[in-house]
Amino acid sequence: MTRIAVIPGDGIGKEVAEEGALLLQELSEIRGLGFELRHFDYGADRYLRDGTTLPKEQIEEFRRDYRAILFGAVGDPRVPDGRHAREILLALRFELDLYVNLRPVKLWADRFTPLRGKGTKEIDMVFFRENTEGVYVDVGGTFKQGTPDEVAVNEDVNTRKGVERICRAALEYARKKGVRTVWMSDKSNAMRHAGGLWQRVWKELAAEYPDLELRHMYVDVLAMQMVLRPEMFKVVVTNNLFGDILTDLGAGIAGGLGFAASANLHPGKIGLFEPVHGSAPDIAGQGKANPIATFLTCALMLEHLGCEEEARIVERAVEAAVAENCLTPDAGGDKTTRQVGDFVRAQVRRMATT
Fold first, then answer.
1. What are the structural domains of the chain?
2. Is 248 a catalytic residue?
3. What pLDDT was estimated at residue 138?
4. Is the entire prediction scored with pTM above 0.85?
5. Catalytic residue among 234, 248, 288, 342
């Protein structure tokens, strides 16, 4: 029995998580995967009702009893400071030590990219973003706030352990997938201490991976080349902040956030899987949410769970939806969230039983 937690969260997260859960349940029944899905109501509604974000004992239960978490989205205008969202997501990432944020940037049809002369062959890469360090650890402070002399500081925390393990994760992935060239991106020409650590680790690892070509590119140059020559990149590893920015740029050249999946991983342990898009409260409950990113996120989960054949089935079902233009309005279609979900699940049923 493989236990999977489902946390729909807020806004359209509830809709897309339900579509993903239905997909996983159906695949499990058809292929005998033994998935047991359980829903948890952590989000704005519960926070406003009783002040609960995500209890430590719940995190420990996830760590002990679950292999994966399917997450919808968090964020609600009724909680303007976003406290519940930060506490839920950061608690999961940091307490479970999910140091790998894996984000594919894959174009599913030429018509989706704004880049002239580029298509599905050129835009197909995977980013490994360090997920537990950098400026996002919230080390810093504000001094003399509200005065002309105000100073605000955020520290960029990088450890050898953290840098080495995310770089290794990217290199191991490339080796497994048959990718020869792996890019590391930093800004060591301006951030010499943190960047210097990344440079030293990267050069040391080159000796351990003689079958791979370890390359380096400054983050500003890499952002430019993603637009000009995206075909250069297949696997990229970078820090927390740069990874956050570059992968959103990647979503922009690959059809938008409606196609952007992500996995938060600690290899060999529980993983957190979530579409990159937010909770979009302005369209919540209207059937306009694009579930494709969630289906692609489910494919990442299936691969993490060792169900690689089933992961490819889900991807082929998404390809069919794109080919038939069975998509929501944001992707150029005219279908509802449920209609897209029903189509994809029908394709999965057909492919999984033949």
1. 1-98+266-353 (3.40.718.10), 100-264 (3.40.718.10)
2. yes
3. 84
4. yes
5. 248
